[in-house]
UniProtKB/TrEMBL annotation, chain A:
Known function: Component of the EKC/KEOPS complex that is required for the formation of a threonylcarbamoyl group on adenosine at position 37 (t(6)A37) in tRNAs that read codons beginning with adenine. The complex is probably involved in the transfer of the threonylcarbamoyl moiety of threonylcarbamoyl-AMP (TC-AMP) to the N6 group of A37. LAGE3 functions as a dimerization module for the complex.
GO cellular component, one term: cytoplasm
InterPro entries in the record: CTAG/Pcc1
Entry keyword annotation includes tRNA processing: yes
Species whose genome carries this gene: Electrophorus electricus (Electric eel)
Protein name stated in the entry: L antigen family member 3
Gene behind this protein: MLLT11
Biological process annotations from GO: tRNA processing; tRNA threonylcarbamoyladenosine metabolic process
Keyword Thylakoid: no
Subcellular location: Cytoplasm; Nucleus
Gene3D superfamilies per UniProt: Alpha-D-phosphohexomutase, C-terminal domain (3.30.310.50)
Matches recorded under PANTHER family: EKC/KEOPS COMPLEX SUBUNIT PCC1 FAMILY MEMBER (PTHR31283), EKC_KEOPS COMPLEX SUBUNIT LAGE3 (PTHR31283:SF5)
UniProtKB/TrEMBL annotation, chain B:
Organism: Electrophorus electricus (Electric eel)
Keywords assigned by UniProt, alphabetized: Acyltransferase, Cytoplasm, Metal-binding, Nucleus, Transferase, tRNA processing
An MF annotation (GO) of this entry: tRNA N(6)-L-threonylcarbamoyladenine synthase activity
Protein's gene: OSGEP
Catalytic activity from the UniProt record: L-threonylcarbamoyladenylate + adenosine(37) in tRNA = N(6)-L-threonylcarbamoyladenosine(37) in tRNA + AMP + H(+)
Protein name: N(6)-L-threonylcarbamoyladenine synthase
Length: 94, 313
């Protein structure tokens, strides 16, 4: 859910938690998705982490439009990583 | 035996190739072709690559007759190029490197072209003319760097050709440059246009309406100047524009006059492809230059001379 925190700069926040079948898969996704910098550096921050079988992503942004673009892009990339694991992960991920 | 898979997608071509000790086992590729009059934009190009990349990956393995376990190393294009497509390709490379538990090697796209050119032609230490839609450089190897002797001061020669094709609405299938070349063969009238060479460098933005003769002459001149500077007797042309037979012909005339040898590859390897990334990755892997996942970010700018060419002496 996106929400505004009460600080004076009125930033938006968005948190996403993605469950994976195993810790290994959550870790693979994290290491694939974290190296690249956001294309737009100002007005947005994104922090990724993994804990047990869950990948977490947290954003702060100045404007809804910027947040939407970043979250949308992240979801497309996440979907590609998951599909790659589905297609090429056997038998490694059994 | 060392088997390396290479992933390339920095512009509108997505290619995945497998190389084993100097042998190209597979090199499938797809091109994102836009309608006449339109260039390719980063987000659409990224969408195209995303839609075919896993299919091309499977093709690469199938054509090579290999399983993931047979691969020793995963190479991918770290840069330079367009950001959005670079990310798509890097994501898949990082994912399979982890799934298959193989080391990752981030390759400079220009060096991919150079190493594939050297492999395919056998040229030992050539002066390199690297000409494509995104890059125009004259390069010579010296003391563990591919030194940039000269380059475009504004746009790449292929970009100039592509923009010209767009203005007069030439088809982009199979590529705008190829169609310009076919039409130019039938040309009878030479039109004199601005010829812009500044020492080792060239400029193309001022001559967007042009004929190949002028642009290619400029490239031959700067290549010759670099050869004279380095005392080199070999020229290697790499990059998509290197497919152009007229450019090869003009370069050949200059080489013959100097008693030098000209090397060029065909469209399989001139044009961006995965095997060239695999080949450069093979060189890097064998001298221990792998890339940690945290350092595997892609970058739109990546100069050819930033890389420590540890595999050559």
């Amino acid at each position: 859910m996106a929400s505004r925190n009460s600080s004076s700069d009125a930033q938006l926040e968005f948190v996403l938690e993605v469950p994976f079948p195993s810790q290994r898969e959550a870790s693979i996704a994290l290491q694939a998705l974290s190296p690249d910098q956001e294309p737009r550096r100002r007005g947005i921050t994104k922090t990724l982490g993994a804990s047990a079988c869950t990948l977490s992503a947290k954003w702060t942004a100045d404007e809804a439009r910027i947040l939407r673009v970043s979250v949308g892009s992240f979801l497309d990339h996440l979907a590609l990583v998951i599909e790659t694991m589905d297609v090429f992960g056997q038998p490694v991920l059994q | 035996m060392t088997v390396v898979i290479g992933f390339e997608g920095s512009a509108n071509k997505i290619g995945i190739g497998i190389v084993r000790d100097g042998e190209v086992l597979s090199n499938p590729r797809r091109t994102y072709i836009t309608p006449p009059g339109q260039g390719f934009l980063p987000s659409e190009t990224a969408k195209h690559h995303r839609s075919v990349i896993l299919t091309v990956l499977q093709e690469a393995l199938d054509e090579a007759g290999l399983k993931p376990a047979d691969v020793d190393c995963v190479a991918y294009t770290k840069g330079p190029g367009m950001g959005a497509p670079l990310v798509i390709v890097a994501l898949v490379a990082r994912t399979v490197a982890q799934l298959w538990e193989k080391p990752l090697v981030g390759v400079n796209h220009c060096i991919g072209h150079i190493e594939m050119g050297r492999l395919v032609t056998g040229a030992r230490n050539p002066t390199v003319l690297y000409v494509s839609g995104g890059n125009t450089q004259v390069i010579a190897y010296s003391e563990r760097r591919y030194r940039i002797f000269g380059e475009t001061i504004d746009i790449a020669v292929g970009n100039c050709l592509d923009r010209f094709a767009r203005v007069i609405k030439i088809s982009n299938d199979p590529s705008p440059g190829y169609n310009i070349e076919q039409m130019a063969k039938k040309g009878k009238q030479y039109v004199e246009l601005p010829y812009t060479v500044k020492g080792m460098d060239v400029s193309f933005s001022g001559i967007l309406s042009y004929i190949e003769e002028t642009v290619f002459s400029m490239l031959v001149e700067i290549t010759e100047r670099a050869m004279a500077h380095c005392g080199s007797q070999e020229v290697l042309i790499v990059g998509g524009v290197g497919c152009n037979l007229r450019l090869q012909e003009m370069m050949g005339v200059m080489c013959e006059e100097r008693g030098a040898q000209l090397f060029a590859t065909d469209e399989r390897f001139c044009i961006d492809n995965g095997a060239m990334i695999a080949q450069a990755g093979w060189e890097m892997f064998r001298v221990g230059q792998t890339t940690e996942l945290a350092d595997s970010w892609i970058t739109q700018r990546y100069r050819t001379d930033e890389v420590d060419v540890a595999w050559r002496d």
